Amino acid sequence: MAHTNARTALELDFAAMISHAVADVQNIFARNAMYRKTVRELSALDARQLDDLGITAADITRIARRESHNI
Prior knowledge:
Elements: H1 2-43, H2 47-53, H3 60-68
Helix pairs in contact: 1-3
């Protein structure tokens, strides 16, 4: 009986590990998608529009990286 309980606990631990791994991968994909979307949208703006926002083209990747980590 104790062997069955120990095995069940190990199976639950393994299931939790898999669940966390899947969540981590989903988070990576979501962050990557946010990064690409931000870069795409800001890159579509011209220099004057970027200036109106108070940024330059050189700031785009830094801003996109920061925004992708705010998910």
